[in-house]
Amino acid sequence: xxxxxxxxxxxxxxxxxxxxxxxxxxxxxxxxxxxxxxxxxxxxxxxxxxxxxxxxxxxxxxxxxxxxxxxxxxxxxxxxxxxxxxxxxxxxxxxx
Length: 96
Prior knowledge:
Elements: E1 2-11, H1 16-32, E2 36-52, E3 55-67, H2 69-81, E4 85-92
Antiparallel strand pairs: 1-3, 1-4, 2-3
């Protein structure tokens, strides 16, 4: 398994319970695929530098995890089709 870091932005206009449900669903994709979540860093609501789809704010999350290639592909696919995820980026970390 390789180490990855994902930064994603959840729609800030969601209610707290719904936002938490979206976050838990995204994390469950990793753990159900046999991966391990090492660190979850909630940055909270931040202003965007520019408007994205008529939004000016988003709820930022940074997650460090270990997973195999198939789990990361499935995570990427589900992030892409989730309408509550504004933007995301998955980065493979060095093996050092």
